[in-house]
Design a protein that fits this description.
Number of helices: 2
Strand order of the largest sheet: 2-1-3
Shape: globular
Helix content: 25-40%
Order of helices and strands: EEHHE
Distance between the termini: 17 Å
Strand content: 25-35%
Radius of gyration: 12 Å
Length: 76
C-alpha cells in the first residue's frame, strides 16, 4: 500500500502570506503555482499540458493578479 504524500504550499497574495497542505502523488513548481491559484481564488484556465510554455503563461497570469513567491516542500 502506498503511503499518502502531503505537500506544504506557501504563497503571497494581497500582502498576506498563506500556507496550506495539499495531498498529491507528486509535486512540481508548476503544480504548486496551479494549486496556489486555486487556493487564492484566482480564476484560471490550465489544461492537461504541463509544458514550460503553459507554466510560464500560468505564472504570468497569477502574478498579474498579485500572487507571488510560491514555494512548496514535502512534509515528512
Amino acid at each position: 500500500m502506498t503511503r499518502p504524500r502531503y505537500f506544504q504550499i506557501t504563497y503571497g497574495f494581497n500582502k498576506t502570506r498563506h500556507i496550506f497542505i495539499q495531498p498529491d502523488s507528486h509535486m512540481t513548481e508548476a503544480d504548486a503555482w496551479y494549486y496556489a491559484c486555486l487556493h487564492s481564488g484566482i480564476g484560471l484556465s490550465y489544461g492537461d499540458n504541463h509544458d514550460q510554455q503553459n507554466f510560464d503563461a500560468l505564472r504570468s497570469h497569477a502574478q498579474e493578479f498579485g500572487l507571488i513567491q510560491v514555494s512548496w516542500e514535502e512534509l515528512p
